[in-house]
Amino acid sequence: MSSPSKKRRPRYAASPGTSPGTLLLREVPAHAGAPGARIIGPALEHVLREAPAARCRLYVLTDLGRPAGAAPLAAALLETGAPRHVPEWALLHALTVAVPHRGRGLGRRLLDDLLMELRADGVRAVWFLPGAGDDDLRALLESAGFRDDTDRGLSRENERTYGYDEPEIRPWAAWLSREL
């Protein structure tokens, strides 16, 4: 009997005709003209309207083998706690891979590198509130250890009493979270 073949995840390969480069995760200032802003789309503008820029973090995944001015391959947008203190939490607003680079494992690579970076920065929990159209990201997060954290035993009247070091949690929403 032969065993069923495992489906292999494709690895990132640089553009045809070039050798794969080294992938680098870097944080860039969160603003409309930032590298990665086009990948994130309208989520960046929305988050910057809702939260101070000092609490927004935009991370991009770039290939050092590509030209210096080349657009990033993927990007993630987060909001963290108080800017002058070690942020204990991060709220993930968006994580996406540029269209021509999808299906190559870059979303997983971005997420893995991002979680490692956040942990090194002192972040101890990451939250995500899935919305319509977030099925792929939700599946990626769940495969990376994020769990449904909807039932926290919190009442609606306490939703704004968690202080500066936790995200505003709506207990009736379907939150995903992961401790780092």
Automatic annotation (TrEMBL):
Gene3D superfamilies: 3.40.630.30. SUPFAM superfamilies: Acyl-CoA N-acyltransferases (Nat). It comes from the Bacteria. Residues 1-23 are annotated as: Disordered. Residues 12-180 form the N-acetyltransferase domain. Residues 1-11 have a biased composition (Basic residues). The keyword Transferase applies. Keywords: Transferase. GO terms for molecular function: acyltransferase activity, transferring groups other than amino-acyl groups. This is GNAT family N-acetyltransferase. It comes from Microbispora catharanthi.
